[in-house]
Amino acid sequence: MKAVVEISMYPLTDDYIPPIDVFLEKIRTYPEVKVSTNPSSTRIIGEYDEVMSCVNESIKNSYEGGVKATFVMKVLNNPAEKTKWDD
């Protein structure tokens, strides 16, 4: 089953860009999912189990790295078509 997770990370620090960059670098290490970003969120598309594993491990990696952050996500079982924000 295909799925898409749209996720936004909100680091609880004034210097918020570096933790987001590390989070995105981790997500992009999973070749089995497609990743696209826009100014406010990231979409991860692929098979449900692979997408959820990618998200779970990437969030865990951030927390284990000492990052304090809030993550907000939507999970859909019908991946959206390409948008103008796809990279």
Automatic annotation (TrEMBL):
Pfam families in alphabetical order: Thiamine_BP
UniProt-listed Gene3D superfamilies: 3.30.70.930
SUPFAM superfamilies, sorted: MTH1187/YkoF-like
Residues annotated as domain Thiamine-binding protein: 5-79
Protein name: Thiamine-binding protein domain-containing protein
Species of the source: Salibacter halophilus
